[in-house]
Specification:
TIM Barrel, two-stranded antiparallel ribbon, 16 helices, about 35% helix, binds flavin mononucleotide
Length: about 400
Amino acid sequence: MSTPTLAPAPPAASAGTTPGDRLTIGPIRLDVPVVLAPMAGITNTAFRRLCREFGAGLYVSEMITSRALVERNESTMRLIMHHPSETPRSIQLYGVDPGTMAAAARILVEEDRTDHIDMNFGCPVPKVTKKGGGAALPWKLDLFREIVESVVDAAGDIPVTVKMRKGIDTDHLTYLEAAKAAEGAGVSAIALHARTAADFYSGHADWSAIARLKETITSIPVLGNGDIWSGEDALRMVDETGCDGVVVGRGCLGRPWLFGDLAAAFRVRAGELGAAEADALRAAPSLGDVARTLRRHTELLVEFFGDEGHACRDIRKHIAWYLKGYPAGHEVRAALSTVTSLAQMEEILATLDWNEPYPGADAEGPRGRAGSPKNPSLPDRWLESRTLESAGRVDLAAAELTHSGG
Ligand SMILES: Cc1cc2nc3c(=O)[nH]c(=O)nc-3n(C[C@H](O)[C@H](O)[C@H](O)COP(=O)(O)O)c2cc1C
């Protein structure tokens, strides 16, 4: 099986001075200011490797819960693994307890398991916010500050970043104060998913909030996140907000080659690549290319899980994303979504017309989670004060997920 050949990343080039050309996160210097967003159930080492083969930048693990890491939960220990080709390594932690978060960071650092730690303060899932975790947590600025400080301290020379949403809802925004607290605590960058928890994944990300954050935070990079579906979107976000880099999530689902387009877009912007050269590099995968990449993704998942059946079950959620816009009939899609072995996958893929050309816009644009706004669930009287100390008894431990992802 050959590796994907679409839009290979051009060789790394030298100096560039325009903001948004290079990204420095602590000691980590990235040739293009592009970060693969952590996505639970998606950004395991298999998918990160696949994306990295097309592009450049930083590729973050899915969220790892600190308690599960400290307890050395078996699937969590597998989730923090990196392939030797993955450098710099990057792991996202989630937790609500400063001590447990610090202990988790110490494991990562002392056992040399990562080069970067990101912290997740953006989870909008009701069962998490209802207990004061996820996007609800930065409202309690004292707890937020304590968690960030303890992780920065435990991480030593390893750079720590935070990823957050705008806040709980439009009346309870937290991002500017939380970002200032994180900057003060010594983080190396701040990423903003420009939605509130109440927005969930609905509507459009509010890029103006990224611009405000960039005006507010001046000593470290600000990364913008939300609704980047193409290289053009990424440049537009940088131009409109002044952010130092972009974090890309759903846009690459079923399209790992998007990282090639993103790298090319930023290299054109930095003057390292001509627009015509970039156009020639732009990914336009035929159905055969998609089939090859789908198969390679599955093979990488087999390596990751060490179990072909498990890998085949896991790849099923990616099928509709890979085939979006391509002429692949209902029967093929249905067969792939129950696939149980690589051999069976080969047989099904062989029934497709591999010469079908790239369908263009139909294969691009929004994909993945969307949905409608939700009233965030919060602990009783959570919004009455900005400090945990004055919040009375809150069972925060219940906001600590026992398993990673989700
Ligand atoms: C399936 C899925 C899983 C996610 N898991 C995480 C996660 O583990 N940690 C995190 O910080 N954000 C997570 N997110 C949010 C994304 O990192 C990102 O902030 C969000 O999708 C907005 O960016 P996008 O518009 O580029 O997708 C997840 C999003 C999706 C769609």
